Amino acid sequence: MGQLPFAEEDSPNERSAESRPRAVSDIPVSPVSGNSSRRFGRRPLITLALLGGVLMLAALGCDADAHQSILSSTPWTLDGVGGPVAREQLLLFNVLLWTMVVVFVLVEGALLYAAIRFRRRPGDPLPPQTHGHTPLEIAWTIVPTILILGLGVWSVIVLFKLEPGEAIALARAEGKEPIRVEAVGHQWWWEFRYEDPLPGDEATKLVTTANEMRVPVNTPIIMELKSDDVIHSFWIPKLAGKQDVVPTKTNSMWFLAEETGMYYGQCAEFCGTAHAQMKFRVHVMEDAEYKAWVASFAEPVQLSAEAARGQLVFLGDGQCVTCHTVGASDVVDPETGEGVQHARMQTYIEYTQWLAKRADERLQDVRTGNEPPTAFAAPNLTDLSCRVTLGAGLVDRNRETLRQWVRDPDSIKPGNRMSELAAIYQTRLDHRADLTEAQLGDLVEYLTAQGPAVCLQ
Question: Which single residue of 24, 167, 308, 381 could bond 220 by disulfide (Cβ 3.0 to 4.6 Å)?
Answer without folding.
Answer: 167
